[in-house]
Write a structure and sequence with these properties.
The complex is a heterodimer. Chain A is of the alpha/beta class. Chain A has a domain at 31-37 and 72-220: Rossmann fold (3-Layer(aba) Sandwich), CATH 3.40.50.300. Chain A has helices spanning 42-49, 75-79, 97-107, 112-125, 141-153, 171-186, 198-204, and strands at residues 3-11, 17-26, 31-35, 57-62, 65-66, 82-85, 159-163, 190-194, 207-212, 215-217. Classes of the chains: A alpha/beta, B alpha+beta.
Chain lengths: 224, 309
């Protein structure tokens, strides 16, 4: 398996208990939805997977690595194995679309010779190959999110994590984005997507982890 | 290795682009750095020139030995030969009373009055030029003057020693003051660059968080700020050299004409190549160090977990 949570709890310093005693397993190559109302703990769970936060109790294992004993200086190398997609895209607005997508390769010291080919392949995948010179600000919301997805997959990560990737998009664009995730999953990438949009969960027929008030709802699991 | 080089080159170009994107603040901070570096640099160059001047003076330092009136030319000549063997004396000139009288007449403008004298009252004078080592040390010079003064043929041995002593002491003081000023202004450069880097970090905190999220190491993020600090120091140093050069060419002509009025040929040298290089390098080094310290302090504040993602 790729992700394993064992009795994980997360309490923030200000006292809010975001996750309570969560246990689940996600296998390699699976696509899993994470649903629940806002404040249910979806984002916190993703932050534990990406080492933005540490669990207060319990054990989180990702890609065979126990995240409980991670040295700060090793975190960047861990994050390079994960592609992350955010609701607000988190693009760098002073860089072109091409440079935004190239950034994960640049920070990991990718050889410049192969960089262009890799970036173009990722942009081609999300259908934005002709916009590589544009600045993100000139793109529509849906296009910006697709740039964010191209950036997340350019490093060919084994795990793709998305936090409300379609939160700001209308239904048609949302479908396109989820179809992209579905396609990556089809090609072997493990995908974990947090969304409150139950429509996609039903449409794609994938496993759903439903959170409410920091607890995992066992009944909701395995809707397919 | 190649990839490493390309990466550094990219960061360097990126930092240059970053500096040119904010031309006003860049010009402002680089100017402050340039002025802060030009002041000690200029003072240092001025000091070098004063040292060169006093070196020339010391090189021409001579002790005047006024011989007793009863000593005639031949006796004076034998004393000259004897003193030439003295280890502290490089060279001796003899001035006859007649030569002295001619010079006195032409310089004083009292030709008529002097012509009315029936007998030349001036003594034979020996001019002793000390060896350089002796000329540089006021103590050794004083010993030599004393020694020569005790010779029975010598009535008076004269050298304006106090003047040299005071000048040397004063130069020593000024040199130290220049170093203190250089240190304080260097600290100023350090703080100015630190402040611009701090502002740059604050302005780029969102980018820093994003780069951390996609797996950028602290070293990667640090690099562009280090280049930025180093470039500011480097450009500041170059402008400082330019300022010193312009300042010196402005005062060069009046200095030459002033010194020629005193019968001295003195040309003002701008900052030499090596001190210029040192100035530019210390500017760049200060910038780098300052950025290193600032980034070390501020970078940890912008962890992705500390914002709402």
């Amino acid at each position: 398996m790729l992700i394993e949570f064992s009795n994980v709890s997360k309490r923030y310093p200000e006292g809010h208990e975001a996750l309570r005693d969560i246990s689940f397993v996600i296998d390699k190559g699976e696509m899993v939805f994470l649903s629940g109302h806002s404040g249910a703990g979806k984002s916190t769970l993703l932050r534990l997977v990406t080492l933005i936060e540490h669990a207060t109790r319990g054990q989180v294992i990702v890609n065979g690595q126990n995240l409980g004993r991670f040295k700060r200086r090793n975190i960047p190398y861990f994050r390079r194995q994960i592609g992350m997609v955010f609701q607000d895209h988190k693009l760098l607005h002073n860089l072109s679309v091409f440079d935004n997508v190239a950034l994960p390769l640049i920070v990991s010291g990718f050889h410049p010779r192969d960089l262009r080919r890799r970036v173009h392949a990722a942009l081609d995948k999300v259908g934005l190959l002709n916009r590589d010179r544009a600045k993100p600000i000139t793109l529509s919301g849906g296009e910006q999110q697709r740039v964010g997805i191209a950036r997340a997959v350019v490093n060919r990560p084994s795990l793709l994590v998305a936090d409300e990737p379609t939160g700001n998009l209308d239904a048609g664009l949302s479908d396109e984005i989820f179809d992209l995730f579905h396609d990556f999953n089809y090609h072997g990438v493990t995908v974990l997507v947090a969304t409150h949009d139950l429509r996609h969960i039903k449409r794609l027929g994938k496993r759903n982890l439903n959170l409410s008030e920091g607890r995992l709802n066992i009944q909701a699991e395995g809707t397919d | 290795m190649f990839a490493w080089f390309i990466r550094h080159l990219q960061t360097l170009v990126g930092s240059l682009g970053e500096l040119s994107r904010n031309p006003f603040s860049t010009i402002l901070s680089v100017s402050v750095i340039a002025i802060a570096l030009a002041l000690p640099g200029g003072l240092f160059a001025a000091l070098e020139n004063i040292n060169k001047f006093t070196d020339e003076f010391e090189h021409g330092a001579k002790i005047s030995l006024f011989l007793s009136p009863e000593i005639n030319i031949n006796e004076a000549k034998s004393l000259q030969t004897k003193l030439l063997n003295h280890q502290s004396i490089k060279h001796i000139e003899l001035i006859t009373p007649e030569q002295a009288m001619e010079e006195f007449k032409s310089r004083s403008g009292l030709e008529d009055a002097l012509n009315s004298l029936t007998k030349n009252p001036l003594p034979v004078v020996l001019l002793a030029f000390p060896e350089e080592e002796t000329a540089r040390s006021p103590a050794k010079l004083a010993d030599l003057i004393n020694e020569l003064g005790k010779l029975e043929q010598v009535e008076l041995s004269q050298f304006d020693l106090e003047w040299i002593k005071r000048l040397t002491a004063l130069l020593e003081l000024i040199t130290r003051a220049v170093w203190v000023i250089a240190f304080i202004l260097g600290l100023g450069v350090f703080l100015v660059i630190g402040n611009t880097i701090r502002l740059a970090i604050t302005n780029h905190q969102e980018e820093i968080r994003i780069i951390k999220l996609i797996g950028g190491t602290d070293a990667f993020i640090r690099r562009s700020f280090l280049y930025s600090g180093m470039l500011q120091g480097l450009i500041g140093g170059l402008i400082a050299i330019l300022i010193i050069f312009i300042l010196f060419s402005i005062i060069s002509t009046p200095t030459s004409s002033l010194s020629s009025m005193y019968g001295i040929t003195f040309n003002l040298d701008p900052l030499q190549f090596l001190p210029s290089l040192v100035l530019i390098c210390s500017g760049a080094l200060t910038g780098w160090l300052s950025a290193r310290v600032t980034v070390g302090v501020y970078l940890r504040q912008f962890e992705p977990g500390k914002s709402n993602i």
